[in-house]
Amino acid sequence: MRLDKNITRRDFIRIVGAATTTTLLRDTNLSAAPAGKKKLWKGFNLLNKFNPDYQTPFAESDFEIMAEWGFNFARIPLSYWCWSSEDDWYRADEKCLKEIDRAVELGRRYGIHINLNFHRVPGYCINPPHGEKNLFEDDDALEACAYHWRLFAERYESCPSSRLSFNLINEAPSVADAAYDRVARRLIDEIRAVSRRRTIIVDGLDVGNRPLMSLADVPDIIQSGRGYQPMLISHYAANWVYGDGPMYFPEDKLGWPFVENGKTYDKEWLRETLDRNWQPWIAKGGRVHIGEFGCHNRTPHDVALAWLEDQFDIFEERGWGWSLWNLSGSFGVLDSGRRDVKYENYKGHKLDRKMLELLKRYAG
Hints:
By secondary structure, the protein is α/β, with parallel strands linked by helices. It is 36% helix and 16% strand. It has an 8-stranded parallel β-barrel, surrounded by 4 helices. Helix 1 runs parallel beside helix 4 and helix 4 runs parallel beside helix 5. The longest helix is centred in the last third of the chain and has 18 residues.
């Protein structure tokens, strides 16, 4: 049975969250101002709760490895289906929530800032399936989404913003600015009613590629961009983008820079594209973090490294932090499954040492 949204759900949040919230360590010596002013947030996405069909507990070894390498940030994309259900938006599974608590605690233990991102919310996800009501049009979906953020805000109320931030919705679609503003402000208000100084990251519109300018008046907001352009490089032969058919661009012609139909794609093109999208936000004093970027394992390794290095140079020039998609997997430095890499055995993983050393050059 669905809980009453106006009364019962608030009591339910208090009950299921109380035990864990009181066990989270209070850290009153740390400033609640967002990190990044002295040292930028740089790290990886951890996908343990990204897909409910393949969810796993968070591994302490991942945090140990990131800290050993000198990284200080973990973005954690979450599907609400891991602890709830599309059939009952107000259900919450305490077992799964405790596993997310563990990620927050591991972040504290290893000095890694945790960014909890709702990758799938009631009414929206960039990935299929898309059977639910539309978050940007339906009040019921928006209220259910606000419920889940209230649940997390209350659960982690005692955890300072120096250690934990919230990322509202992954990769908002190409909707009207006003529609996204309405959703974002509703969720921000729900969180800030509990945790007034919580740092909140808002993914840009058009799948994270341009800022929502109307949020310039909201304090402690960071907007999250993407570093996947051009898609031919970052997602070459990715079957969820291009299907299982052959690529239209032959692999032996793929390089960085490259020319297509008389147009040159190079470092300057990247710089101009990012500046065109994000300079209006920066001009208003806004901050930017690149929440996702990386290169799928079908792109030739030397091409991927050359493209990544240009991306890093641009991020460095602008003082932007970043998080690679992902630590382990086809975009990552561990167990990436590339055919043209001589891997190093590392703590039970296959390590792409060349990619790791490139990341570490820019991690400080």
